[in-house]
Design brief:
Blueprint (H helix, E strand, L loop, with lengths): L2 E2 L2 E2 L10 E2 L4 E9 L2 E16 L6 E5 L4 H5 L2 E4 L6 E3 L6 H6 L5 E4 L6 E4 L4 E3 L1
Antiparallel strand pairs: 1-2, 3-5, 4-5, 5-6, 7-8, 7-11, 9-10
The structure holds zinc ion (2 copies).
The site of one zinc ion has 8 residues, from loops.
Length: 125
């Protein structure tokens, strides 16, 4: 809950930084008509979810409030299964241009394979 310098701390552990879960989530919209409840999986609010590694407390914020949602986040194309995955290293476009990223070992959450990636393998989307 407490946000300091855009970092989010756990409500139960005010000294612990909450970790962002990769990717985006959503609060699904629903319609209530008397007793009848219909979930509307194609509408809702995109959110970014954070969790505390210690107590598991979850918290979410509208994705629109995050630069990565507006400008794109860093992704990597898996060298084994060719699917794109959310890069464990995140930065904005300006920092990306000036940084040299070499031989970073990432594990693909899709196929579980570990590969080494360079700047050329990373892109915004
Ligand atoms: Zn906690
Ligand atoms: Zn893969």
């Amino acid at each position: 809950m407490p946000i300091k310098n855009e970092k989010i701390y756990c409500i139960n552990h005010p000294d612990l930084l909450m970790k962002r879960l990769p990717g985006y989530y959503a609060i699904t919209k629903l319609e209530k008509d008397g007793e009848k409840i219909t979930f509307m999986p194609s509408s809702g609010i995109p959110v970014v979810v954070f969790t505390c590694g210690e107590c598991g407390y979850l918290e979410f914020y509208p994705a629109l409030k995050f630069k990565a949602w507006r400008e794109g986040a860093l992704y990597v194309k898996c060298k084994s299964c060719t699917k794109d995955f959310f890069s464990p290293i995140q930065m904005d476009k300006e920092s990306f241009e000036t940084s040299s990223l070499k031989n970073n070992s990432f594990q693909c959450p899709g196929c579980g394979k570990m590969n080494s990636y360079n700047k050329e393998d990373m892109f915004f989307k």
